[in-house]
Amino acid sequence: MKISAVKVSKLDVEMHQAIKTPIGEISAARNVVVCIETSCGLVGWGETSPMAAITYDSQASTYAMGVEMAPLLLGQSSVAVESCLALLRRYCSRSSVLCAFDMALYDLAAQAAGLPLYAYLGGSARSLRTDHTIGNQESVEATVAMALDLVDAGFDTIKLKTGRSGTLDLEHLSAVRAAVGPDIALRIDCNQGWDYPQALRMLPALAELGVEYLEQPFPVWDVDSFARLRARGVLPLCADESVFNHHDAWRLLRADAVDYLNIKLVKSGGLNTALKINSVAEAAGVRCMIGCFGESRLGLTAAAHLAMARPTIHFIDLDSALHFCEDPVVGGLRYGDGGHISVVGTIGLGAAFELSALSDVFEVTL
Question: Which one-letter DSSP state was computed for residue 138?
C-alpha cells in the first residue's frame, strides 16, 4: 500500500475572542493541513497549529516546509510509519509541519489495521473531560464573568492564563475563587511570565486558593528555578514550553524539576514523539497533560485518541475548537455538556476536513 499523493494546504478560522498570554495572543487558527492518499484509496489527515513564540515557526514557514517535504513520501509504504517519519526528520527535524505528516500517517496505519486510532495505539475508549481556558482579561470583572459562564455551562475545571506583573494575577484568581466556590478546580498557566522571586511570593496564596497546579512559570531554559520551587513542596509544577520531546522530559525529570509534563502534538512533532514523552513520564511515575495550541477538532481528535491510549495522560486541555467561530471538520471528537469529550464509532482518526475550508492546496502525485 504505497503513498500515491500528498496534499499540503492552509486552514484559517477566526476565534470568538482573542486568548491573551504573556508571550502573545491567539485570535485565529492559522494552521497547516496535510492529506496523504494511498494506492488502495485510503486517505489520512493531519493538522498542525504553529505558534511562533513557542514553536519558532509560522503558518507561512510551516506550509513552505510542508511543500518541500511532501514529495519525499511518494512511493513509500503508508503503514511504515517509523521509516516515513525518519525520512522526514532527516530533511527537517524541528518544524511544526512534522505533526501534520505524523498524524496523517498514523491515521492511515490505523485505517489499514481496521482499528480506531486509540486501539491501534494499544488503548481502549475511556471518558475524557477537558478544562476550559480563560485568557488574560483587562479587568477582574471580565475574568469573573467568563468563569461564571463556564460554570453555568457545566465545566468543573477552569484554566486561567496568568504571568502578569506584581499582584494582578492574585486579584483575578482570588475573585474567581470567591465567585465559583471551592468545588471548581482552578489551574493556572504563566506561559513563562514569572521569575523565581515572584513565583516564591505567590506560592502561599496560590496554595490557599486551592490552585491544582502551576504551569510553566519560568522561561524554558530555567530548569534550576523549576527545581528550587518544586523542592518547597507547596504546589505541583507542570512543564509546557520546556518539553518538546522525550529528551527534554528526561532532563526535567532527572532534575526533579516538575511534577507533570504537558504533551502537545504540535510541539512534539506528532504522536510518535508524544508516545516517547509519555513513556519517560510513565517510567518516572509522573502524570501527563495533553494540551493544544489552536487546533481544530481534527488535531484535537488525534490528541484525544492518544489520551485514551495512555492512562498516564491524566489532565485534559483540549478546548481550542470551542473558541472557533466555524467548525471545518467532518467527524472526529464531539464535545458534550461540561467539556465531556467522546470519540466513538471511528476507524483510524475518524475525522476529515471540509474541502471548502482549505486554501492554497499544493499536491504532488506519483
Answer: S
